[in-house]
Design a protein that fits this description.
The structure holds two protein chains of two kinds. Chain A is of the alpha/beta class. Helices cover 26% and strands 18% of the residues of chain A. Chain A has helices spanning 9-16, 86-90, 98-107, 126-142; strands at residues 38-43, 47-49, 63-66, 74-76, 112-113, 116-119, 147-151. Chain A is globular and about 45 Å long. The two termini of chain A are 13 Å apart. In chain A, 45% of the residues are buried. Chain B folds into two domains: 2-74, no CATH class; 103-239, no CATH class. Chain B is built from nine helices and three strands; from the N terminus they run H-E-H-E-H-E-H-H-H-H-H-H. The chains are: A alpha/beta, B mainly alpha. Chains A and B meet through helix 1, strand 4, helix 2, helix 3 and helix 4 of A and helix 1, strand 1, helix 2, helix 3 and helix 6 of B.
């Protein structure tokens, strides 16, 4: 369904003409085998913990999602109306696969799950979010994360 | 998404990602990405299908072991066709819910009619996604309807601007309706069918459509932008 040709015409046009700059470098960081990696989730779904500040248009910052968050407290304040939310209402893992990640850690497929996860609100341009993302990278390193798993919406 | 990955990897943390819009991921040269042919809003493919989600997740994580990059791999399968019900019709008839002759009155009656099903949904799922706006549904409905005459009602929440509150209230109302309908017998349906029901058959959807011309021409710039860009999904613009 996220094939461009399957989207409503106006949305397809919007997405196809969004300005995406091609970077002039290809960063590549090596790490240990997957079974030893510590994984953090980074979503752009505008997720937040209930009671936290809702995202507003132009937000370039992130919300912290604790690794032991009660799923009943996970809500969305993304400003876009153009993605399905009923899947998330039924099962948060379809958008933020935290339970799946814990299962993989318990089986030994990954090393461990980070203490904190993060959500941006993807309607903001990547350039505007870059300073916060650089800052976030430092926090990930402090948490010994060597696998940032980014999940769009 | 690809831009975030690029930045984080540049700072020394290995990244991998799911990609929903292949074109963007390609252009932005994300270090590692698994493109999936799923609906926007469902990056892991299907709710309540742990085995499928796990496959998507593992395929994405295994890209971390690629020898060099950027690497962009296509996931081979469509999402399981969960929920699409042929000939689905909403099990509850909401039209004519009230003798009320105002939109606000009809909306209030509709919310009352759906509330037991919403409560049932919360009990069954053990969670709700309603709540970013912080208003009870009856108050949320009244607050939204109060914008119909072109004015700006006072925000009932101290320190929260009316335009910001309206945006979260709109999403809370939609979530309330869609969670409620899913709990009714025969309420399970595809995402597109549920959206068509909300926008085509409910008073709440009707009011949101009627708010489009009111807000799009509003003197308040935030309300104007909300009306122009953040009110009616592009898949439902044909109703305007």
């Amino acid at each position: 369904m996220a094939r461009l040709e399957d989207l409503p015409e106006t949305l397809r046009h919007h997405i196809a003409t969004l300005e995406c700059a091609t970077p002039d470098s290809d960063p590549w960081v090596e790490g240990p085998p997957l079974s030893e990696r510590r994984v953090a989730l980074i979503s752009t779904a505008g997720l937040q913990v209930r009671g936290d500040r809702p995202f507003e248009a132009g937000a370039d910052d992130y919300r912290i999602i604790p690794g032991d968050v009660d799923p009943a407290d996970l809500i969305i304040s993304h400003i876009s109306t153009n993605f399905d939310r009923t899947g998330f209402q039924q099962d948060y893992n379809v958008m933020f696969p935290l339970a799946r990640l814990h299962e993989l850690a318990a089986e030994g497929a990954i090393g461990s799950v980070a203490r904190h996860h993060y959500s941006f609100m993807g309607a903001t341009s990547p350039d505007a979010m870059a300073p916060m993302a650089e800052h976030l990278a430092g926090l990930l390193k402090q948490d010994r994360v060597d696998a940032a798993l980014l999940v769009p919406v | 998404m690809g831009g975030l990955a690029h930045t984080i990897e540049s700072e020394g943390v290995p990244t991998t990602q799911v990609s929903l819009i292949r074109l963007h991921t390609e252009t932005m040269r994300a270090p590692r990405a698994l493109w999936v042919p799923f609906e926007l809003g469902r990056p892991l493919g299907a709710p309540d299908d742990a085995a499928f989600q796990r496959r998507v997740l593992l395929d994405t994580l295994r890209l971390l072991e690629a020898a060099s990059g950027p690497v962009l791999v296509d996931f081979p399968d469509e999402a399981p066709a969960g929920g699409m019900v042929e000939g689905w019709a909403c099990p509850i008839q909401l039209a004519g819910t009230a003798d009320a002759d105002t939109p606000a009155g009809r909306l209030a009656a509709e919310i009352r009619r759906l509330h037991p099903w919403y409560d049932e949904a919360v009990a069954r799922r053990g969670r709700t996604t309603v709540g970013a706006g912080g208003l009870a549904m009856a108050d949320a409905g009244a607050f939204m309807a109060a914008f119909l005459d072109g004015g700006v009602p006072e925000s009932p929440l101290e320190g929260v601007a009316p335009a910001a509150l309206l945006k979260t209230v709109l999403e809370d109302l939609k979530a309330f309706y869609l969670e409620a309908i899913a709990a009714q017998p025969g309420g399970a349906a595809g995402a597109g069918q549920l959206a068509d029901w909300f926008w085509g058959e409910t008073e709440a959807g009707r009011i949101m459509l009627d708010l489009h011309p009111v807000l799009s021409g509003h003197a308040d710039e935030r309300l104007k932008q909300l009306g122009l860009r953040l009110l009616v999904p592009r898949s439902q613009e044909h109703r305007l």
